[in-house]
Amino acid sequence: MATFELYRRSTIGMCLTETLDEMVSSGTLSPELAIQVLVQFDKSMTDALENQVKSKVNIKGHLHTYRFCDNVWTFILTDAQFKNDETTEQVGKVKIVACDSKLLSQ
Amino acid sequence: MASSNVSTVYISVIDDVISKVREDFITYGVGDAVLNELQALWEMKMLHCGAISGNIDRTKAAAASAGGTAGTTPPVHDLNVPYEATSEEYATPTADMLFPPTPLQTPIQTPLPGTDAGMYNIPTAPSDYAPSPISDVRNGITINGSDPKTGRPSPYMPPPSPWMNQRPLGVDVNVAYVESREDPERSVQPQQLTQDFLMMSSGKRKRDEYPGQLPSGSFVPQQDGSADKIVEFVVSKENEHQLRSFVINKQETSTKTVNPVIPQCDGIQDDYNDQFLFPGVPTEDYNTPGESAEYRAPTPAVGTPKPRNDAGDDDDEPPLNEDDDDDDELDDLEQGEDEPNTQHLVLAQFDKVTRTKNRWKCTLKDGIMHLNGRDVLFNKATGEFDF
Description:
- The structure holds 2 protein chains of 2 kinds.
- By secondary structure, chain A is an alpha+beta fold.
- Chain A folds into 2 domains: 6-52, Helix Hairpins (Orthogonal Bundle), CATH 1.10.287; 58-100, Transcription factor IIA (TFIIA), beta-barrel domain (TATA box binding Protein, subunit D, domain 2).
- Helices cover 40% and strands 37% of the residues of chain A.
- Chain A has a 3-stranded antiparallel sheet.
- In chain A, a hairpin with a 2-residue loop joins β1 (56-69) and β2.
- By secondary structure, chain B is mainly α.
- In chain B, 51% of the residues lie in helices and 10% in strands.
- Chain B contains 19 helices and 3 strands.
- Chain B has a 3-stranded antiparallel sheet.
- In chain B, α1 runs antiparallel to α2, α7 packs antiparallel against α19 and α13 runs parallel beside α15.
- About 46% of the residues of chain B have low confidence.
- The chains are: A alpha+beta, B mainly alpha.
- β1 (56-69) of chain A pairs parallel with β3 (374-386) of chain B.
């Protein structure tokens, strides 16, 4: 199963990465094993998002920058509004990084 | 609602990961204790981030699964560290390869326009005058309000009194002269040696003022490069007056380009300047502040009080450059805000991205959003942006 390392940059991914890093540098964990954990995280996170999350979001904003490189879209929005069923979040500047979903199904 | 939901998802992910790597840990010969430590650390960090709430059923599950070894798990250190830092280190091997440019560079690139402008403007300014005001301002060091005007390089090390009479900085400058001499001699006579040198160069710049402000033997570096006159010189106390009168004579004959109004701030003969003041020049600003004040707070004085002959160019320039600095700083600030934890980020997969003229539409799925310090997950998202 293909996975994205994309989600490692999320909060949960960062926390895991940080943890692994500490454990590797302290010698508790081997780097190989740490990589294994990260790979597993990629899978688990993707699974969870696919299967456990049902919410929808609408995004509006001014597109400040766009980039499509290596099948990754990057958008930088200014004055963006994120609306879902429950709340609306307003942010002055946000970056959206999106991988091609088709790559996963291959 | 959302947050609890997110928390639940996160916890399930943690559980999932932990349970699925257990085999790997075993095959690597690593005990459960390590795995539990990993989980504990991870959850702890998540709690610190506020990504998960501590009082979730998950807690029980964790306790159930890891409870036995929980005791052995070493208490986690305080982890308020922004996760960006670690991400770099760790991501280096893997994540970086996937998204090298996107994460870090994007924010940096955006500011470039501003930066460019700043860089562009600097050269535009007259080479003579622009640099010194800038450097003065940046260093927070301004000796004289008139400095920028004369295009004089910002003085070296303002602190006046400490080494006033002691080791003259000028020694370095005059190494060539002193070199041949032995140390003892040098210590005794350095001032005289430099004096001659000074006399020669002193004529041009009203430097006479400096002797008062700068410690004897101090030198003023040449910073802006072009068209600047070299102003390095050393003056001993004894010769201060001599030098001064010498320069004064020159000043009287000198052209308007030279700014006679250089504040005398050393407390010695402060009135001295008055003779040379042009009518209408706000001299009080310069003279009133004591030595230290001159050095520290003069920035404003530099830019403002300049209605003089050649001041026209200078007046225009310094403010411009200062503005540029401000702009840059603002840009940096904006940038800076994005970098830290407050960075708003959406990580997702895209199904489709289309554009019609300046109207962009995209459909995303399976996303993690970090907005305003909170994580929000979505299964689908539609975006409409105008470029």
